[in-house]
Amino acid sequence: MSIRHYRLSTFIWRITASHMITYFIIGFLAYHLLNYQQLYGSHPFSCLMKPSNSPWVVMGPSLQIVRGIILSLSLWFFKDVFLTGRTGWIKLYALVAGLSILSCSTPGPGSIEGIIYTKIPLDNQLIGYFELFTQTLLFSILVVYWYKKPFRAWDIISLLLIISILFFGLMALVSLTTI
After folding, report:
1. DSSP string, 31-80
2. Minimal CA–CA distance to 100: which of 113, 119, 90?
3. Which of 25, 121, 137, 169 is 20 to 30 A from 130, alpha carbon to alpha carbon?
4. pTM of the predicted structure, to 2 decimals
5. Residue 109: how many CA atoms within 13 Å on its side-chain side?
6. Mean pLDDT throughout 18-32?
7. Cβ–Cβ contacts within 10 Å for residue 162, how many?
């Protein structure tokens, strides 16, 4: 079956699920390995980032469903570029990393705009690259692989993982509000 025959709903599901799953896994690892609680609680990030126990931060992985849908709708028009051929994951990786990490139009830490316009020291800006580039790489590989080997088991596993992410976010939020 040609990639062009895939439905938009399938594409949205696979992109959103791949984004949420890789975001959760890599975000969890980065949070603990890079000690984000301390890093984001200290200057200069404390001026930009909400504290780790903020309900918004706790719900962050669950709220990535919105970003996943936006990402999927944006990538829909370019799917043939990265879903065909042997190097599709590299094309998807370059597209997403280039547009969403390095050249985003806001002066976020690590972006070209952030390096130029913010007072945040360069070493502080680059610390998030481990998380950003690793998540984007895994996302790109997962998306393309899921299309190359579309087993029913991937749908079931991804559904269970998304339900778990939503459940953990809800339980963490409930625990914050009952303390």
Report:
1. HHHTTHHHHHHSTTGGGTSPPTTSHHHHTHHHHHHHHHHHHHHHHGGGHH
2. 113
3. 169
4. 0.90
5. 20
6. 95
7. 20
Indicate the number of domains in the chain.
1
Q: How far apart are CA 25 and CA 32, in angstroms?
A: 11
Q: What SS3 class is residue 152? A: helix
Which residue segment(s) compose the domain that 159 sits in?
3-177
Single-letter amino acid, residue 132:
L
From the list 95, 81, 84, the residue with the least C-alpha distance to 147 is 84
**At residue 20, what is the residue type?**
M
What Å distances lie between residue 21 and 100, 116, 157, 160, 164, CA to CA?
18, 32, 10, 10, 10
Distance (Å, whole) CA 139 – CA 82: 13
